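Task: complex structure prediction.
Instruction: return structure tokens for all chains below.
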Amino acid sequence: MFDAAPENPYPDGLRPDEAPAPHALLTPVLGLLGTWRGRGQGTYPTLAADFTYAQEVTFSHDGRPFLRYEARAWLVDGDDVPLRPSARESGWWRLQPDGRVEALITQPTGIAEISVGHAADGAVDLSTHEVARTPTAKEVDATRRRYTLADDTLAFVHDLAAVGQPLQHHLRAVLRREKREQ
Ligand code: HEM
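Output:
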């Protein structure tokens, strides 16, 4: 007879002051926990036109020294009307002593990034250590992701080296933390 597994006893936490207690190594990134929503602009020299997008980003944890990261974006027009789904990615940010971060991030476009960097004082800076690509993925060579946190606002800047272009600006966005229920 098949016994259904019991409910997961280890749900992810979305805020620092609730169970599960965050691991001490998460201290430099505690301010990121939660769900963020906002808008951004993108550009790249190979594209015919710049674009505007909306985005939802979630950072959560299960008490161990890594964050679960999930982001999805959709293109919008000048009136905020959704045009089509755009970039999605998810991954794991492994926190190391002294705020060092090792991140694994994958995208449905066939890209798997391993990035390394540092988190401190409300800022995270991650640069490519390695990129792996599926056989049909576009040529992505490197990225740099910078997050700056101020209260409930998260600013994000993304540089990209891809399709023969050197590392340069691709995206910028400003996200606000979803109001937490008390
Ligand atoms: C919020 C996140 C992102 C958004 C909204 C976004 C949006 C776009 C858009 C609209 C394009 C034009 C092609 C198309 O219409 O699909 C594009 C191209 C591209 N993006 Fe992004 N992107 C995002 C993140 C990323 C990331 C994380 C990477 C790589 C790690 C990336 C790599 C590329 C590449 C390689 C191209 C193709 C350039 C070309 O072939 O000329 N993008 N992006």
